[in-house]
Design goal:
The chain has helices at about 10-20, 25-30, 35-45, 50-60, 75-85, 95-105, 105-135, 145-155, 160-175, 180-190, 220-235, 240-245, 255-275, 275-285, 290-295, 300-310, 355-360, and strands at about 195, 205-210, 215, 320-325, 330-335, 365-370, 375-385, 395-405, 425, 450-455, 465. It is α+β, with helices and mostly antiparallel strands.
Amino acid sequence: MDPVRRRLFAGYRLRNLRNDRGLSQAALAARLGISVSYLSQIENNDRPVTSAVLVALAREFPSEWAALGEDDSVAVLLGALDAATDTSVPRDRLDEDSLRRAIEQQPQLARRLVAVHEAYRRSQEQLRVLDDKVESGAGSAAQLPWEEVRDWFQAEGNYLDALDRSAEALAESLGETPADGIAERLATRHGIRVLRDDGDGRELSRFDPARRELRIGASLPPESQAFLIAHQFVRHEAAEEMREVIAGSGLASLAARELLSVGLANYAAGALLMPYTRFRHAARTLRHDIDRLRQRFGVSFEQACQRLSTLQRPGATGTPFYFCRVDMAGNITKRHSATRLQFARFGGACPLWMVHEAVAIPDRILVQLAEMPDGTRYVSMAKGLVKPSGSFARSPRRYAVALGCEEAHAADFVYADALRPGGAATPIGTSCRICPRPDCDQRAFPPAASIIEIDANRRAAVPYSFR
């Protein structure tokens, strides 16, 4: 018998999932599109979990649904449904009910469909990267060290298991609030004193190995000071783990390996201040409310956002988020993505993306429902931030951070509450160079390899069309 058709009784698992999320039976039934009485029967093991319910669970709770299946049959089913309804494929989409029956009858065909669709997506992503490089003039140049490190983190899925678990174990040894004991542990175990420096603010911190002193900028916010102390702490406590990661990274240049060392210490410091299990549980309980998370863990808004994008531990993943930081000029200076959304590697991002507006409006949260050219819709939050320079002689740093997830996770993302249910999405793209939308009034230039057509008798916001 095909695994998808196997009778699966998982009432206690479904009940635990509901209780863990703090949902009533009525709320969960509404999200799954079934009646309360039907859900009650499933939870009492009077009815099996059907493939249709499993698919609904997969879409509503992607982080937990796999625990309900005993094999990968539901993953194949969901992947095949995704492939068959991909809006980027210019053919009529199939009816989901009839498609589900066909997939259940031909499981090998379903696996082949999923594999072909994954290969198609990879090839499209590779093509976009190539187009972006060629059009930007970067195609012939070797990667810069920071690009090597950025791409290495992305290839690792922005999650480093050994380092994350090591930092979590350190956090547990420091108690409920790790930040409170780090400076003391630095002194007792490593003989390092932490001093506040009232200098000109140009340096955030400086470690003097000979004097065993770590000087932290006194003008920095408390959460920034705590992070810098944690950074120094993990450089000593997790040194061996970081050396092993660097040795196996395959990075070509010395500069890239040194940058990776800094990046690994930053990663471990975040994992220390926001231990995986505790942070993931709090994030789910608080529906990823950044302000409440940063207050609970004593971290900055940006640090909490970035940590959410790294919760990819096998068997205990968090909600898949993308995270990025954008400066006043529109440059993406930091980016992580656990979603299908990929950022422009070269050139500016889409001007319709609300993160650009957020840069100009500090300390205000903006929310947007956006749709990519392939039909994937994202609920995004962006906030403009200002970091003081510590001196009147230098301008403060102004930028915005953005955090987003696919619309399927909207119920678990508190910022989605500000959007009108079923409202229209803003059509955005990765960047103008690789965006195929023909009717965008904000287009800066045509996509790479397109054929431009100009009609001198017609005037529009964009002075050309393309094909």
